Fold this sequence. Notes:
Layout: H1 2-21, E1 25-27, H2 29-36, E2 42-45, H3 49-54, E3 61-62, H4 70-77, E4 84-87, H5 92-103, E5 108-111, H6 114-120
Amino acid sequence: xxxxxxxxxxxxxxxxxxxxxxxxxxxxxxxxxxxxxxxxxxxxxxxxxxxxxxxxxxxxxxxxxxxxxxxxxxxxxxxxxxxxxxxxxxxxxxxxxxxxxxxxxxxxxxxxxxxxxxxxxxxxxxxx
Length: 128
């Protein structure tokens, strides 16, 4: 009986984990590039300012996810009625940002591999 209950709880836990992961979408470099071609998409770089200045995807807004005011700035700057595409260095911080934004009602897509993958694919960046 204990094994049966443990099995049911395990299935329930897996189901909950799967639904939590569907709050935002992850895409590769090519999918991200196609997405951001649309004028309706808000492109957000969530790295530190010095990282942003070293090179970022053209047209991106800078909102540092590690700044304590990230959510306040994002809510004041971004339009909830427009999709958001977020990226960072490797994809970890942007996943955090994507999670935070999706909880606020944004439709969010995260770049898998971040700017590292973008640069490896020889996609365009600009410096400030």
